[in-house]
Write a structure and sequence with these properties.
Blueprint (H helix, E strand, L loop, with lengths): L1 H4 L6 H15 L1 E2 L4 E2 L3 E6 L1 H7 L3 H18 L2 E2 L5 E7 L7 E6 L3 H7 L14 E2 L44 E3 L6 E3 L4 E5 L6 E2 L10 E6 L2 E6 L6 E3 L2 E3 L1 E3 L5 E4 L2 E6 L4
Helix pairs in contact: 2-4
């Protein structure tokens, strides 16, 4: 049904797969239990956000239901029903999207989705709400963020930034071939390789099991080769470790990944 009405390069099935991968990637090991993220922020391009329009609520509900089933199949523990929210990022291109999963308590989700305060608006951010049900949203300042009040319900479809309303900077991303979306770089270290346990898993037989690692370096990121068989290249040059710059092309096996720094 959604494929017929959601006229966008980004299709609901891709969003479902991306949310499931983010659940696997962000799960936390407890004492005898594995806890799954409970909040999922889906960042879309402006055109994809327009195409989603009034279907945000219905699609968000379907995604939340899918995530409950996915967690149950893998014996993951959900501390509350998953919350799915959609955001528009002015800097994402048509067909690109980012999914960010967070393990939050019901109280933290309530605080995250609380009533907005205009004093927290950040003029340097570039994420803003999708107008609901085809109603035009208030005009936002250039590259500005506009918060929108929401009710605290099991599934929330309003558009906010992926951080609390204090509006943190945008997140660097990596374009990964074959996934249909960009991967957000979070934490201090993300391993890239062929193993399913890697933070970024490549279906590339020319990649080593644990091929390289992306490591936070100051305000940016570096890539480190982990003694791979075929080596790691950045912009065609073999490296051991190098600080990444916006637009750098990372070659692992026959896969090309593109690093994107946040703008704004």
């Amino acid at each position: 049904m959604f494929a017929g009405v959601f006229r966008s390069p980004v299709q609901p099935a891709e969003l479902a797969r991306a949310c499931a991968k983010e659940m696997d990637r962000r799960k936390k090991l407890g004492v005898g239990k594995v806890y799954a993220p409970t909040m999922y922020s889906v960042l879309l391009s402006v055109k994809d956000g327009d195409a989603l329009g009034g279907f945000a609520e219905t699609l968000g509900g379907e995604l939340a239901t899918y995530l409950v089933s996915y967690a149950r199949e893998r014996d993951y523990v959900l501390t509350t029903r998953p919350v799915v929210r959609f955001l528009v990022d002015d800097e994402l291109k048509l067909g690109r999207f980012v999914v960010i999963g967070e393990l939050l308590s019901p109280e933290e989700i309530a605080a995250e989705l609380g009533e907005p305060d205009d004093s927290f608006h950040d003029p340097d951010d570039h994420v803003h709400p999708i107008p609901a049900e085809g109603v035009a949203a208030p005009a936002a300042p250039a590259s500005g963020v506009v918060s929108q009040p929401t009710a605290v319900v099991p599934v929330v479809f309003d558009i906010e930034d992926d951080e609390p309303v204090s509006a943190a900077p945008a997140i660097p991303t990596i374009t990964v071939p074959g996934t249909g979306h960009d991967v957000a770089l979070t934490g201090e270290r993300m391993v890239v390789g062929r193993l399913k346990s890697c933070d970024i898993c490549l279906g590339d037989h020319n990649a080593s099991r644990e091929h390289a690692a992306l490591e936070r370096e100051g305000m940016g990121w570096a890539i480190v080769d982990l003694g791979s068989t075929n080596g790691t290249l950045v912009n065609g040059s073999r490296i051991d470790r190098v600080r990444l710059r916006d637009g750098d092309i990372i070659t692992i096996g026959i896969s090309e990944l593109i690093y994107h720094e946040p703008r704004g």
